[in-house]
Amino acid sequence: MRDNTTDYRQLFLDDVPMMDMRAPVEYTKGAFPHTVSLPLMTDIERQKVGTCYKQHGQQAAIELGHQLVSGKIKAERVEAWAAFAKANPNGYLYCFRGGLRSQIVQQWLAEAGVEYPRVIGGYKAMRTFLIETLDSAVAECDFVIVGGMTGTGKTEVVAALDNSIDLEGHANHRGSSFGKRATGQPSQIDFENRLAVDLLKRRARGQQQFVLEDESRLIGTCSLPLSLHQGMQHYPMVWLEDSVEGRVERILKDYVIGLSAEFLAVHGEEQGFALFAARMLQSMDNIQKRLGGERHARLRDLLQQALDEQARNGAVELHRGWIEGLLNEYYDPMYVYQRESKSARIEFAGEQSAVLDYLRQRAQRSKT
């Protein structure tokens, strides 16, 4: 049998498959990439054992656990664990602290003829390792922020660079009031774990300078780790520029054409478009207070007309009206203020190709 491990770094660098013995509710709250939930106990079974532990102590709780997971139920679970072990001979199993649950599973597998190692310290130790990985990257690495007005293509710049961290990709959200996607966001813990693993792998490849898109603390429902958010208030910036026409076209492509296609792919044509339209109207309503009553009503009416036209014949031209109105009357005044407040940190400004050239040269300089 391979040895049990405490080499958390290598587990994440190598995308080692792992099976998680914690209850489903624990797994849903937060887990790691390349893991599968194959719990020792269901949520209800775990709750019963927990109550027993509080009332009668550990030994009584263990005995109840063995009663609840016995016979056919036990055989089915052992079979599922054995199948995972066979399919992933390089993998591991773990529970919350690497204690009783993972030891029981390891023992039952051994009795079934399957020797399989566990992660000592379990979920808690691996989670602590990833938090420390993230904080050490923030403390030790060089970061630069890409800022710019809405629709200038900041996400495109991030996607085009080898040394960028895609915060919005990890959060599965475009980062604005209209940024919610057709598929859901990860839990807060999953978001942080993905971000930490990304940084870990990049640093292992020798990267020490990273490009980030300018973000507020919240990307949809995902909150940036505090140390990173605080750092982003001071990191040097490059400022991306583009014409209003170019920005309107980009927003139309990403937030209307792209997002509606995403909804159709996930939910089917009829339901998908209805959900897309509802999402767009809801996004407009979410900023009603900041827009003010008259402006919100006018822009919402333009959006509704554009959605009606799109539903009738697929045409998207009318969307340009509310997009341009929203840029001129809402986003741009806000960003003009932001640029002024961040001007001391801006070390370069230009259109997309110039910004990409500058950031690539900057990365090269940091290596020499």
Verbal overview:
The chain is an alpha/beta fold and 368 residues long. The chain has 17 helices and nine strands. The strands form three sheets. Strands 5-4-8-9 form a four-stranded parallel sheet, with helices on both faces. The protein has a three-stranded parallel sheet with strand order 2-1-3, covered by helices on one side. It has a two-stranded antiparallel sheet with strand order 6-7. Helix 2 (24-29) links the parallel strand 1 and strand 2. The chain is globular, with a radius of gyration of 25 Å.
- As residue ranges, the low-confidence spans are none
Strand order of the largest sheet: 5-4-8-9
Number of strands: 9
Helices, by number, come to 17
Task: Name the beta content range.
Answer: 5-15%
Q: Over the alpha carbons, how many angstroms does the gyration radius reach?
A: 25 Å
Order of helices and strands: HEHEHHHEHHEHHHEEEHEHHHHHEH
Count up the domains. Answer: 2
End-to-end CA span = 46 Å
Which structural class do you get from the secondary structure elements?
alpha/beta
Helical fraction equals: 55-70%
Largest sheet: 4 strands, parallel
Mean pLDDT: 92
Shape: globular
What structural keywords apply?
368 residues, alpha/beta, Oxidized Rhodanese, domain 1, four-stranded parallel sheet, three-stranded parallel sheet, 17 helices, 9 strands, 62% helix
